[in-house]
């Protein structure tokens, strides 16, 4: 449905991919995971880096009743990834995670 690819431009060649897609499986994670109804849409955030070669994906699933939250969540994830394009913020984030190289 909607995909945004945000390259960080760092030496690890890190890319954030934010996707909103229709789904047929999974349960709604709205209301702090307490909804539990069948999912119909999901926002996926995939962080992919080339050096070292690593990839991770976080998926947040919403039911029909919470479907309207998907666009807002997608945009929040894009804004967050774009903030990581700032070298100072990116370095601070890595330092907080204990990565200094």
How is the secondary structure organized here?
Elements lengths: L1 E6 L7 E8 L7 H4 L7 E10 L2 E10 L6 H15 L3 H10 L5
Antiparallel strand pairs: 1-2, 2-3, 3-4
Task: Walk me through the structure.
By secondary structure, the chain is α+β, with helices and mostly antiparallel strands. Helices cover 29% and strands 34% of the residues. The protein contains 3 helices and 4 strands. Strands 1-2-3-4 form a 4-stranded antiparallel β-sheet, covered by helices on one side. The radius of gyration is 15 Å and the shape is elongated.
Low-confidence stretches: none
Percent range of helical residues: 25-40%
Major sheet: size, sense and barrel closure? 4 strands, antiparallel
Lateral strand order in the biggest sheet: 1-2-3-4
Give the CA-based shape: elongated
Helix and strand content put the structural class at alpha+beta
Distance between the termini: 37 Å
Following the backbone from N to C, one meets helices and strands in this order, namely: EEHEEHH
Number of distinct helices:
3
Q: Per DSSP, what share of the residues sits in E-state strands of 2 or more residues?
A: 25-35%
Gyration radius, to the nearest Å? 15 Å
Number of strands: 4
- The average pLDDT score comes to 90
């Amino acid at each position: 449905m909607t995909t945004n690819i945000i390259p960080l431009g760092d030496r690890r060649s890190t890319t954030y991919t934010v996707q909103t897609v229709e789904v047929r499986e999974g349960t709604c994670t709205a209301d702090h995971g307490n909804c539990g109804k069948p999912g119909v849409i999901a926002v996926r955030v995939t962080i992919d880096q080339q050096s070292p070669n690593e990839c991770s994906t976080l998926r947040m699933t919403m039911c029909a009743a919470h479907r309207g939250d998907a666009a807002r969540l997608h945009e929040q994830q894009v804004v967050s990834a774009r903030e990581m394009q700032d070298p100072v913020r990116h370095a601070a984030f890595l330092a907080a995670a204990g990565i200094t190289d």
